Amino acid sequence: MLRIALVFWFIVLSLPWVLAQNPPREEIDIEDFIERLFPVQDDDLDFESIYEVLFQLYQNPIAINQASAEVLAASYLLAPDQINNLIAYRENNGPLISLYELQAVPGFDLNTIQRILPFLSISAGLNTQTQPLWKRIVTEDQAYLLFRHRRVWEKRRGFTPADTSSTGKVSSRYLGDPNDLYLRFRIQHPRDFSIGITLDKDPGEQFKWETKSARYGFNFLSFHLVKYYIGKWKTIALGDFQAQFGQGLVFGAGYGLGKGAETVPTVRKSSVGILPYTAALEFGFFRGTGITYQSGKWQASLIASFAPRDGRIAAERDTLENEDLTISSFNQSGLHRTESELSTKNQFREFSLGGNVQFAPNSKLQVGTNYLFTRFDHPWVKTPTPYNQFDFAGKQNSVASLYLNYNWKNFFFFGESAQSASGGTGTILGLVSSLSRQIDFSLLWRKYSRDFHSFYANAFAEATRPANEQGVYLGVEIKPISKWKINAYYDFFKFPWLRYRVYAPSVGYEWLGRITFSPNRSLSAFFQIREEQKDRNLADSGEPALTYQVKPVNKVNGTLSFQYQVNKAFFIRSRILFSRINFNEKKSTGFLMFQDAQYQFGKSRITGRIALFDTDDYDSRLYAYENNVLWTFSIPPYFGQGMRYYVVAQHQLTPQLTAYFRFAKTNYTDRESISSGLQTIEGSAQTETTFMLRYMLHP
């Protein structure tokens, strides 16, 4: 009776807002999302792809009255006890009639509600409209055309005239100009349809129409057409798409967060299903058809893909008449700037056929199985090295898995086990739990054999792919009092076989600690420290009698941050980062300090940064997220000595047209040239600009 009375008075007092059901939908705070959810920044991470999948969640908000525990966990924004409290609240009081009613759910404080609001919807969003599809498409508000231009203004060596060596060989140069061009068209309605085209040309690539090399002006073309909810057909995707089921051992979809400052929920993946592919990366997606059929508690998906891939083809002559072609290497850079790089474009075909079957008898249990068969039109034969002899070789591969997610009280159990055609296996087992309202906890164990092969896997791992690794991860989040939060994790891992640049079995560990103080919504400060230790080969001594020796590399990174929302228009952030590297008794250090400011007035917003950095070498480099134009990523490494600054301006010219401009410059004090090879700039400064226009088709 008391709960009913509380709900009644909450609804009465909130009536003006309740009638609106959904609060005004705010844009997601990209920087906060990146720093809190994304893994510790590194060169190997595909941030753009991860962001694109996250953005799909934003574009298709969760229907809060229908979402299961699995779907709610996919947002990475709710603790297990909050998910259980929300489901219990729905069962006891019926569907929520407004997102503002979240304030009545036990465990939902204002900070939690503010963070999750952009990803929630009060309606189911099902296709209940009476208009024909083509009318919904032409009248949809979420329809835009986006054009972006980027350029580095100092001339790189690749754009200078070619020279001739003493042997008469003409040196390589870029075929195209230094402009980076990007064009995107997108029209979509959540849980109804999505149509998109993405075109991309990298600096140095030719803007050329040539069907032979699959260049249609731009170097890369991606497209998709996705329709949701046609009867029991949950998803029908044509063109480029991704898939994620289970813990990512078969279908990973680039949505692997793993280790980061958010130490508890991000270790677990959710089965978000088939998603349109909208990034400009030229690998890691399917091209063909993906469909999902749902009937009651069962769901089945089928994936068929036939996609061109970049790589080098080698010819092996077995007789005077016969010549066998093999794939010697994949090119995943997506760059086709020189004749050599262009010769790798679309050199072979990849056929993929797979599927998923999933059974969810209730909102707390989900069981599923995955299968994926992949065949290349030529066998893949790598150049043998000491570390790659258990890597995939051949013309075809298959991988299958079983997975399970189960929610019992405040415990979320999850696991997946897979086996590839080679006999290699991969297994993940873990749990996420709220031990109390103050303590959340996660535990993950993984074991991937050295001959486990899965091309679209993106599971929790220290290495870039789940193979040749064993490890245990422990994460904890403690909120001792309302204004303080402590996050920490420890990850121990070992590699039973050799790895790239590590020619011996090795072990390592990584831990992170972060303490955050947020006395109010305007002020926030944190201190974070992270240590990682892994082995690496010593430099070759040149003595044939000595084999490669390995030694541990110890890295320590720290961050001290302070940010303050002075008023509604003005925001400042100060941050200090440092690093220390110790390898074979040689120590190096790095230091970075920057000041950010943002001012918003009318229909305009200006953001700026000035940074000073000083690192001994590339190993001690430091990463920091930089603001950029809309939907563009920038997390550059800072290394060497110098100063970097940038300004980003945004202005809404008309209700339909918004312009963005970014100017960034780095001045080095420790060098007379920047980068190497064809990327070399003769000089100590690098200037970059980015200009973007977004045109909404409907005001």
UniProtKB/TrEMBL annotation:
Name by which UniProt lists this protein: Helix-hairpin-helix domain-containing protein
InterPro entries: RuvA_2-like
Domain of life: Bacteria
Source organism per UniProt: Algoriphagus halophytocola
